[in-house]
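Board notes, transcribed. Complex of a protein with shikimate-3-phosphate.
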Amino acid sequence: MVETKTVEYDKPLVKGSIKVPGDKSISHRAIMLGSIAKGRTAIKGFLDGEDCLRTIEIFKRLGVSIERKGTDVVVDSPGIGKWTTPKEELYAGNSGTTARLMLGILSGSPVTSTMTGDDSLSKRPMKRVTTPLQSMGASIAGAESGDFLPLTIEGTELEGIDYNMPVASAQVKSAILFAGLNAEGETVVRETAVSRDHTERMLKQFGAELVQDGKTVSIKGGQALTGTDVTVPGDISSAAFFMVAAAMIEGSEVDFLDVGLNPTRTGIIEVLRQMGAKVDILEQNGEMGEPYGVVKVSHDRLEGIEISGDIIPTLIDELPIIALLATQATGTTVIKDAGELRVKETDRIAAVTDELTKLGANVKATDDGMIIEGPTALSGGELKSYGDHRIGMMAAIASLVSDGPIHIEDPSCIAISYPNFFDHLSQIVSARIEE
Ligand code: S3P
């Protein structure tokens, strides 16, 4: 039987401070680079969500020693050259980042392995990664000409390429850079818009040299990495759910502690400000390659805006919760150039449109985005998560502005990126004291 969770709030107020769990993208990369590197890597603030735990399990199968105590992880690796061929398949679960980045890493490793995933991941396109990797000489085989998992990767010698990426995707960029690290000669990746640059920053932390010039990144092959310490800041994509809650609800104000502020991820702050919410960055630090700080978000009158173009990769995972925000803003919000949403954990354009429409929102799906007219009063209802953590969290946050309870079908997927989401939700919601 599929589990259901009911969330109901009567005239709530959101107040207080939250330290959201570690950044998912950075946590994956810390395990990956710690395993490619020789020596010890100590990680603090690791996200102990399901996706990142899959990445740990995969490297254990490759012979890397990884000890985890909550959010502290120690990786002891002999270096990529000494990995051992796994006895079992490498299971990435629901995690696109694990699968795609691993394809790039395994292509130039000494091992042969098979990468598998859950039903959702097995339907997500892999060709965007296998095509450039195969042109570097990678040996990747699977059904349907290698477009879907399972895929078998036979590690081999690779050659650098100069590649124009057709989609702005950090997963594709990172897979090619990881392959380039183990390839002969130089690898150049050219993006259409700048996507998150955590791989580039962390490669430097582990001692690699690479050149970033606008939308182009180049790396020379044959560089050896050395283990180092990594501190993972809070995930702004997780904070975004409570940032939107604070922005939507009159009288609300929430502080986010130690949240990542990498400019390739902060599109949500830009959008909140443009729509009228108050966002203050109280303190900013730049320790260990990734900027982070304290961010205060407070409610104000909200207006619809257009969200399109180069900002899209900097808020791609926030678009479901931004759509909910737009239902509470006056006027039209147009989201364009976000066709990538159709190939996320679920088709997020269809899922967001269907679920918000059930609550009475005025949302229209387009090929590459959504058009939302607001403000609309939302009712309660029965919403599906589609096994997609970000749709599940959007449904829960909708309960703060809905008139009636929201029943979320299959909420357990939220643990993929935010295991203590419901604890934080109940911590920051307080009853409004009527004057
Ligand atoms: C990620 C990149 C993005 C994002 C995903 C994490 C990463 O995907 O949606 O949640 O860690 O590199 P794309 O690269 O497919 O845009």
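The radius of gyration is 21 Å. The mean pLDDT is 96.
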